[in-house]
Every structure is written in C-alpha cells, then in structure tokens.
Design goal:
Elements lengths: L3 E5 L3 H13 L3 E5 L2 H10 L5 E4 L8 H9 L5 E6 L4 H10 L3 E4 L4 H20 L1 E4 L2 E4 L4 E4 L2 E3 L3 H12 L5 E2 H9 L8 H13 L7 E4 L3 E4 L5
Parallel strand pairs: 1-2, 1-3, 3-4, 4-5
Antiparallel strand pairs: 6-7, 7-8, 8-9, 10-12, 11-12
Helix pairs in contact: 2-3, 6-7, 6-8
Length: 225
Amino acid sequence: MNIKVLVADDELLFRELVSDYLRKEGYVVLEAEDGEEAIDLFLKNTDINLLILDVMMPKSTGWEVCEEIRKISEVQILMLTALAEERDEIRGFDLGVNEYITKPFSYGTFMARVNSLLRSAIKEKEESIQIEGLRIDQSNKTVKINDMAIELSPKEYALLSYLVKNKGRALSRDQILNSVWGYDYYGDARTVDTHIKSLRASMQEYGQLIRTVRGIGYEMQVKND
C-alpha cells in the first residue's frame, strides 16, 4: 500500500528537507510551494493520506487551505509552522488540524507524530468500505457521500451493509429479510421494498447502485470492481 503525503511550504530548502525525511520512511511525497497549489494537488489526488501545511504561504495561507480542505475531507492534517503562540495553535485546532508542530523541531518528534497520524489514517481506511464516492465506516456505523455524512436509520445501515458485503450478487427479498431482519421476523417481504426505496433516496446519486433484479430482488452494482 502506497502511503501518500502532501507537503506544502513556500521555503524550498525546508520543504525538501521534510520531503526527504518522509521519503526515507518509504512514503510517496507530493510538494506544493504555495497554498493554491496545495489545494489543486489535493483535489487531483484523492488518495492523499496526510497533508503537512506551513501557515505563512503565498496565494492561500495554511489557515485558508485547511479551511477549504475541511469542507470536503477529513484527511489527517499536520500544521508545521514557525508560529508558536498559543492562540495560533488554538486557531489551528479550531480549523480542524490533527497535529500542530512548531519550528524548529526534532526529526524524532516529527516522525513520531507523522507515523501516529498515518496509523490513524490507515486504520480508518481499513475499517471502511469505499464504493466510488460512497464510504461506509464499519467501526462507528456511519455513511458518507463525498466526505459528507448522511443519516440512515439502523435498519437502513444494516441493509446497506448487507448489500455491499454481497456486491455483485442478486439477492432475493427473502434472503435480505432473513439476514437483515432475522428469521423470527414475521413481516411481509414488501418491507424490503419500502426500505430499499428509502435507502436509495438517502444515498442520493449513489442510490442507482442498488439495482432491481426482476423476479428475484436486489443487487449492489459496483462499476469497475
């Protein structure tokens, strides 16, 4: 698994130093020399695991980059800056950064915090199922569409999980009913249809991934799977 880190700092020598540290650990590194380029690279590389930001950058500051990224993603963000005042650190955490390190710093401390953030990012990825822009987090039973949380009832979540785990298979209404509602459920199989309709609506544009299989039931389709 390639772990990808984006480093954004307008000081070339410092940016290269940090990038070298990361490459020695085996990480894939992307570099940005200003805030605008950082946002552009992030949008073009959806598999970035960690974003390392300086604050005082041209075009867009680290604060502004963080604010924009947090509108669309919960990627791990480490602020690496010369701003050592408590109010700056508080501002960073208020904007959603995960770690705040001030310059100068030691290699050991820096890498320890980077590795900790990446472990969290990898664990989150392993505990989630991604289908295009739809992500199911199995650890806390939440669902996101393009990094925005959607609300599902417990039964809708269970239904979606069952369909995803059996993606590509046509499942009968009885199979779904027995697996999601349980064998002791005495309701009608039309209950499945009602919940599928509700689930499709909640999934917005990804509702079309749940295909009706005539004469059988439903199937979770996955493109290019």
